[in-house]
Amino acid sequence: MAAENIDDVVDGLAGIVREAGRAGDRVGYFAALYRQVTVEVRTAIHGGLFDDGARMDRFDTHFGNRYFEAYDAWRRDRSGPRCWRKAFGLLDDADTVIVQHLILGVNAHINLDLAIAAARTSPGEAIHALRRDFLLINDILARVALAVQDSVGALSPLLSLLDQVGARTDERILDFSVRRSREEAWYNAVLLAGQNEQEREATIERLDIRAAVLARLVARPGGLVRPALQLIRSTESDDVPAVITHLDNAVE
Description:
Layout: H1 6-23, H2 27-46, H3 53-77, H4 82-88, H5 98-121, H6 131-151, H7 161-164, E1 168-169, E2 172-173, E3 176-177, H8 178-193, H9 197-219, H10 225-235, H11 240-248
Antiparallel strand pairs: 1-2, 2-3
Helix pairs in contact: 1-2, 1-3, 1-11, 2-3, 2-5, 2-6, 2-11, 3-5, 4-5, 4-9, 5-8, 5-9, 6-8, 8-9
InterPro entries: DUF5995 (IPR046037)
């Protein structure tokens, strides 16, 4: 699928959520989170929050299409960016907890896709005028992600164990930091915006490799986190459609 505007992105994500709910597919976990982010961004555009609403519509469309391209590639032949393959590859893993699925998606979308979408929206020197709106859209992404993570508590009664082993504090979940990744995404967006095609390809390859490494750390953490995750998983709901519905209503 390919979106032409932010309304198409919302509709595309809603379609994935609906189909995942019917099929009991965990891909609906992150899609539900992302749909709510996009709805919030669209509301902010209509409310005049951004300096350039039309530009942010294009930005969000590029951003959404990165996810759709990765999703379609995985469904087609298990291809696509490394970090997305790591995320999608665990959808059938019964030992992966809900919050891990969410963070694996957030990792790929922030650490790879966000900078690429920004550079495509505002190439060259135009990237600098995007900074304020970029930071605003990042804030929306982080706020919704945290709201959804908090809602997971109703589905994961022992999620607080991650706090006790130091793996979940504020915006830090396991080995993934939303705040640090948002800051790095802007740096990489400026870098990509000023590069030629060959340089961009090399930078995107580097970003994908790094995001895939982070995905492995989130998927298979060491130390006390692993047994804590096993306990959390033993008490989580196994009703995938119900979990998707719960997550899809976490913000609204």
